[in-house]
Design goal:
Layout: E1 2-7, E2 10-12, E3 18-26, E4 28-39, E5 45-51, E6 57-59, E7 67-72, E8 77-82, E9 91-101, E10 107-110, E11 114-118
Parallel strand pairs: 2-11
Antiparallel strand pairs: 1-3, 3-8, 4-5, 4-9, 5-6, 7-8, 9-10, 9-11
Length: 120
Amino acid sequence: QVHLVESGGGLVRPGESLSLSCIASGTFRLIGSMGWYRQRPGKERDLVANINRGGQAHYQDDVRGRFTISRDDAKNTVYLQMNNLRPEDTATYYCNVYAYMTSGPNTEFGGQGTQVTVSS
């Protein structure tokens, strides 16, 4: 199993910044792709950004240029730096990783979520 612990959410004003982090622990050989999803009120969960082990990142169109995803493989941690936040970024943000397991099938795991609220 893989346990994901997210942190860094909170309440900020429009234009401010937040940094999320997610630490993975458990019985895996290594972590492949890591990413962040979000679920805005009344909407389905969608991908915000992801990053592979090679460092290639993909962003949702409306966060590109404002958000930056990064990873530290030595710490099994993925980060999401969110700048110039907007009210429409208000959502629960979920960490997601693909883990190559020590036994059993390789599996995708998700975190419990951290709330980000952008409001004046």
